[in-house]
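Narrative summary of target 7.
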Amino acid sequence: MEPRPIADLLPPAGQHLVVLDDGLFVKRDEQWRRLRSDISIDSLLRRPLDEIQRALDRDADPVDPPLAAELRAPIGSQEVWAAGVTYERSLVARAEEAVSSDPYERVYSAARPELFLKATPARVRGPLQAVNIRSDSTWDVPEPELAVVCNQRLEVVGYTIGNDVSSRSIEGENPLYVPQAKVFDACCALGPAIALAWDYSPGARAISVEIRRGDSAIYSGETSTSAMHRTIRDLIDYLGRNQTFEAGFFLLTGTGIVPPRDITLEDGDVVSIRIEGIGVLVNPVKRAPGRTA
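Modeled conformation, tokenized:
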């Protein structure tokens, strides 16, 4: 996909942690600062929140706004986890597609949320990189989600955009097929940057998605984080039970936008997800090559 100016993908205001092909940067409004070369996403997320904030203020030097650099997924060695059925729209869609809607109806109102491993770092793609749809699926959709970035101590460091690419045809056959519907090569995209928690509130933020095929938009939808049925803190606390994350983790918080049955992703489509205050995550779509046993 053709490079796009960084300014087209990042919001003009706010404080963001940005990963470019030539280093790690802090963008505060229109001012850019480059972090020391020994600082990484991993080294930051091993620190307490107050130390992270101090490091981003202390260990970065002013630079000119980058023009030719390329955005990368803002992830290191972290796992990407996901929460399901956190919006009412997601409940309705999952119930409609499933052989039995009962598990989804029950988890929507249960104390314990649905949590699952979505992607390892190698399965994550960044802005303008291609995400895959499965070769053995007939109904594939993007799932636009607010992604929470947490450190080792389960403190929220910031927020980014996630695309939880999913096979609704496989998941709809049987809830036990969720790992196959969700986890495969290039199944997740993150970016364009991390909006830092001390300068960003995730409440009542507009989320929108557009799917383009050639020169036409074949689908668009929108929601708000205010429609989430669960709190972010609740999701984090359940995920952190009996688990250790040495360099933190990413948590996709669920989707409130589900395309109808007549919309499915195809090879060559382009998905754009926008979350107010974070920017826009753009990814082309590729059909994964089939494999024989």
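The chain has two domains: 6-63, 80-287.
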